[in-house]
Amino acid sequence: MAVVLRNSIQEITLQLLQFIHSAIKKSASCGVIMAPCANMNQKTLDQAKMLMSQNDATQSVHLFYDVPNQVLCAVLDCGTLGSTHYASLVLKDFLQNQHLLQGQLIVSSFPENGNPTESAVAKFILQAIQSKGNEGDIHFYTEANAATSVLIADTDDVVREFIKIRLELKGYRVYEAKDGQEAYNIFVRVLPDLVITELNLPIMDGYQLIRQIQRNDSNEGKVIVLTDKQLTGDMSRAYESGASDYVTKPLSISELEWKIKRLTTNH
User: Fold this and answer.
1) pLDDT, tens only, 234-258
2) What's the pTM value of the predicted model, to 2 decimals?
3) How many of the other CB atoms lie within 10 Å of CB of 53?
4) CATH for 149-262, among 3.40.190.10, 3.30.450.40, 3.40.50.2300, 3.40.50.620?
């Protein structure tokens, strides 16, 4: 079930990213509104688009509905945070009158509220999805209040899945990799707030992965080593490579969660 959810979020993330980047290329900015909704069809989409277009004839509005996550996405060319907020009021009234709204409307403007990376957009989408069941008010998304993202690099499927489930239950956005090269590729693409890595990784080992990550200033060195290697020399080498903390197996999940929280509290 968790794998299906993760894949469906990734699909809508990539779809929304295409709309955002296309809008920014045309007008340098765009507004985005996310709303959990049920039973949306083409007729209601067209009605919502017409109302939002009438609200501001200077803005092009793009709407699509993601069925797996039951969330409505609206992208407004040239949308500032202020104009997008005003458009969200129109959309909110329409959805409530049609008895379609199932949670909060989440509003943002890119790049005004942050860079439209895959990680940022995925957090934005998750904030809307996780609002299901709440009162249908309007909230603003910024990178500062987004969920913390964590990348886990380990060859052990059981270890990765155990950590992923525990962290997702705490509200973290989790990515997984089975080798160092895959981990680095994901890191460059999503820029997670924290990386947890084993040192014994194929293709690119943990030391190499840490050094590559340290070349990217945006991560600020937030790497936790989680490994079977318990010798002082291994620990010293990891810290010299740029690791922020070191945890040995067998895993204490409480210790790991505390270290994650300590490193990401002000991410």
Assistant:
1) 999 999 999 999 999 988 898 999 9
2) 0.55
3) 16
4) 3.40.50.2300
